[in-house]
Structure formats: C-alpha cells, structure tokens
Amino acid sequence: MQPDELRSTLVGPIAFPVTPFKDDLSLDLAGLAGNVQALLSHPPAAIVAAGGTGELYSLTPAEHRDVVSTIVRESGGRVPVIAGVGFNAAIATDLARDAARSGAHGILAFPPYYPQSDDEGLVEYYRAIGAATPLGLLIYSRDWFHPGAALVQRLADIPTLVAWKEGQGDIRRLQTLMSRVGSRLCWVGGAGDDMVPAYYATGVRAYTSSVSNVSARVARELHERAASGTEPGPLMTDLIVPLYALRGRRRGYEVTVMKELMNLLGLAGGVVRPPLPRLAPADLEELQKLAPHWRERPA
C-alpha cells in the first residue's frame, strides 16, 4: 500500500487493540486472533498493531513481530494494519522493517525514549523511521512530546509522512498545527473516544479507538454521529464517559480497564504486564456494574 493509499483510508475509527497476555504473562496469540475477528464485524478504518493500548513498550522484538503478523493474517487485507514502533531510532527502524516484511501497511511512530530531545534530534529520529520503509508514516504526539507548529511543519517534509495523531487532547494546540500545516497531513484524534465530538468540531474525521476493543459497532456509530453533527446522547453519557472516568482513576488503568472489560464480555483481554497495575477490587466491582450496559451493545 502506497502512503497516499493509506492516507485515503483514514476516515472513521482506527482500532487500537490490546495485546492479550496469559496469566503467566506470555502472549495469547489465539486470543488476539479472535479479538481481530470481533473487530471486523464492523470494520474500522485501520488497525494499529502493538500501539499504546497494545502495550508496545512491554513487547520484545520477536513478540512485536508475532503481534503484527497475527493481526495482518487475521485482517486478511480487509483493513490496513499499522505497526507501532518506538524506543530509539535503531530499534524503531528495525521494528518498522520487520513489520513491513510481515505485511503491515503503515507505521505509527511513538516518541523516543529521551524526553529532553531538541528539535534537531527529533527531526533526525522521525526521518530515520520514515526512511526505514516505503510505508506511510503516522507520528504520534503523546506524553512529553507536544511540538509547536514550526517543528511539525519541518516533520511534514518527511516524504512518507501521511498523518498526525494528537494524543494529548489539546484542541487549542491541534488547531494551531492544523492552521499552520493544513491539508498536508491527515489529522487523527488520538486522546480517546470521549474526545471525538471535540476533535470532529475542528474538522478531524478520524480517531483512534480503544472502545473498538469491546464494541466496534459503538466506535463506528460514534464516528457517524460526530461526522454528521448529531449529538452522541446515551452513547456518550451511559457508556463512554463512565468507562473513561474509570480509566482515568489511576495511571495505567487506560489499558487495564479495557482488558478487564473485555474479559467480562467474553473477549480475550487477559492481564497487563508490569509496570501497568492490576485493577483494584473496588474498581473491578464498579466495572462489573458497567459491563451489562456494554453487553447490550454487541460488537
């Protein structure tokens, strides 16, 4: 898939599947395969293999390859598969090349390990990832990496860069970037399903969805409502807002809560790897009360 082809598909929810682990913390590839099949019941715009929700930073390079290969195989070409990469330039480029050999259609670059990087170092880091494969590149702005418009405009010179994923929910900054860089990039809302109405009000028409793990149908409906200017109503108030409130209760819960909800709904969530925390008993009890509302909205 050429970069421009990938870009053209990025409309609607982009699924961010978890990477299920067994109780002994080994990969559950069979569970991952089943989860992908559930996702395809209402196909997303793309699937990100080994993203943040997929616990990229807990995976070995061999595990990363297995996760990407499994998702590519199970998706069967129905939707593009985008592989998350990061750590440092050497590891990120190796992961990107392996993902390309495994059949991935694009690369999502996470910020590097060093949070004090200056602009020159960041440009070289992302250029190296972009040059590693001919695949379309997405850059993920998250955590400490919140560049200004001048840096984003420089990064837009990377030939394979097709999209920018805003992962901090900073609508003011996003509007500044969009005003400066314009249609050169596809803009992707990346801070959560609960932010979709705000993102779409700026003209964004793609977002990365954790909710797609438990209901691809809800993720698709949320996009359709936001794109048409229709209020999300109970979809937001009864399902997404309570879920995100629980996710925000403790650092790392954004993955833990999704996995536990998947387990409750009969999907393969599995457990998280350290340093992500397990769910506290009181929080699990609250999630158990929320689960029936999601069960009524099948995948």
Can you give a write-up of this model?
This protein has 299 residues and is α/β, with parallel strands linked by helices. The protein has one domain: Aldolase class I (TIM Barrel). It is 46% helix and 14% strand. The chain is built from twelve helices and eight strands. The chain has an eight-stranded parallel β-sheet with strand order 7-6-5-4-3-2-1-8. Helix 5 links the parallel strand 4 (106-112) and strand 5. Helix 10 crosses helix 11, helix 10 packs antiparallel against helix 12 and helix 11 packs across helix 12. The longest helix has 15 residues, at 61-75. It starts with a helix and ends with a helix. The mean pLDDT is 97.
* pLDDT < 50 runs, ≥5 residues: none
Rg, nearest Å = 18 Å
Named at the architecture level, the CATH assignment is Alpha-Beta Barrel
Sum up the overall morphology in one term. globular
Taking strands numbered 1, 2, ... along the chain, how are they ordered across the largest sheet?
7-6-5-4-3-2-1-8
Strand content: 5-15%
N- to C-terminal distance: 28 Å
Q: What is the CATH top level name? A: Alpha Beta
Report the helical percentage.
40-55%
At the fourth level of CATH, the homologous superfamily is: Aldolase class I
Count of folded domains: 1
**Total of helices:** 12
| Major β-sheet annotation | 8 strands, parallel
